[in-house]
Amino acid sequence: MIRVDSDPACPNILHLIEWFETPEEYIMILERPDPCKDLDKFCYEQGHLEESQAKWVLVQLIRALKHCESKGVLHRDVKPQNILIRTDTHDIKLLDFGCGDLLNDSDYKMFAVCSFLIFLGLSGTLDYFPPEWYRYRSYRAGPATVWSVGVTLYNILCGTLPFKNREDILRGRLRFTRDLSIGKTGLTLNFTNSSEIRQDSHPVRLAVTP
């Protein structure tokens, strides 16, 4: 988190004010936007976001993730629960780098998620894992990030997850639960740290209508 908070800072990443180390733990003092809620709760109370709201959230989220990439950091746990949204302006802050890692071009072989929660089936992060993790037990930073952003976008637009289980993720058949506009693609953002993509992997390019 010190890396991503170094100058020039990103307005869409929660600011680390101070931190302390004790023999048992690290203590971090973070900014708290006001008024704010985590994006998951905000969307739950509304049912879903309107397209204009979701578009603004997505642009800010990608800005935050591109900043992480520029600092050599992989967040690795993008989901609505790890995003704060100001309820008045809809500005967002990405938080919780506890599952993060240094960015590299090679395959990652694990996710930093509590194995006990996985065993109990209580880790919501599993819903945001890319299909190549389930198929190969490995993944690249760029494609995995784009996948989690896509799942997050579907979630905030439709008020539910796009896939119910591992089998659905591997099958990859996406159905929308509400009518959405198509629009023209005006902005294309690409996470470029992955030099190779498996042929059966999902695309690493994400388009946003401005």
UniProtKB/TrEMBL annotation:
Q: Which reaction does it catalyse?
A: L-seryl-[protein] + ATP = O-phospho-L-seryl-[protein] + ADP + H(+); L-threonyl-[protein] + ATP = O-phospho-L-threonyl-[protein] + ADP + H(+)
Q: What is its EC number?
A: 2.7.11.1
Record's InterPro entries? Kinase-like_dom_sf, PIM_Ser/Thr_kinase, Prot_kinase_dom, Ser/Thr_kinase_AS
Keywords of this protein's UniProt record, alphabetized? ATP-binding, Kinase, Membrane, Nucleotide-binding, Serine/threonine-protein kinase, Transferase, Transmembrane, Transmembrane helix
Record GO cellular component, one term: cytoplasm
Q: Does Acetylation show up as a keyword for this record?
A: no
The record, for Pfam families, names: Pkinase
The membrane spanning regions, by residue number, are: 110-129, 141-163
Q: What Gene Ontology terms for biological process does this UniProt record contain?
A: negative regulation of apoptotic process; regulation of mitotic cell cycle
Q: Which top-level group of life is the source organism from?
A: Eukaryota
Q: Which GO terms describe its molecular function?
A: ATP binding; protein serine/threonine kinase activity
Which residue numbers delimit the Protein kinase domain? 1-210
Name the PROSITE patterns on file. PROTEIN_KINASE_DOM, PROTEIN_KINASE_ST
Per the similarity annotation, which family is this? Belongs to the protein kinase superfamily. CAMK Ser/Thr protein kinase family. PIM subfamily.
Q: What is the protein named?
A: non-specific serine/threonine protein kinase
